[in-house]
Amino acid sequence: RRLYGYSNRMAMNVLLINSEKPRTGKSTYVQHLQQTYTGIKHLSFAGPIKNLSIQFADALYTNLPSMEHNPIDYHTSTKDKPIGGIFENNTPRELVCDVSDLYSKFTNPNIWGMVAYENICRAKEEGFEYCIFDDWRRFKESKYLQDKQDLKVITLYLSKSDIEFTPTSGSVASFEGNISANDCDLAFEFTSNWDNTPELDSVLSTYLGLKYNHG
Prior knowledge:
Number of strands: 5
Helix content: 25-40%
Radius of gyration: 18 Å
């Protein structure tokens, strides 16, 4: 079998997290898991796409030096605000969705699943036992990874009691809200202040066999 000599006996544990709406605390929760347990690699489907989006914007501004240059910032507080300049009212969230679709159209429909798999393989080589993606949005990526016999994939649907969100465009709507709790192996709702987080820790510990970080 291709790539790094994987075998079924050494399947990598992969957790894919989807949420009802943005800003449920997914990234913060994964950071908490990394601090609490050992061997966890935090990965992202969108990370490579964000880099390509920034390169795209930089290339445009290089060829349009007289245009106002507003940076593409994917920070939580700015990714839903208009970029301005040549991008006008488009937001970073919209840009990353459109760039994702563009590259999928001109390369391979499973391109982001393929990239994710390569990153999982590298994490395995680095000695990690678990890979967690906190930005799973579409079935095509999960299906691609679930078809890999060297991976053990578990899906988690997260919601939060006080979050409201309306997609800002058709491109964002094509990513957000396509996966329901019924589509996932596990579902969990955070309280407004996340004080039930230990309950989710216990569930994931059982499913993934997580080991405490005693350091």
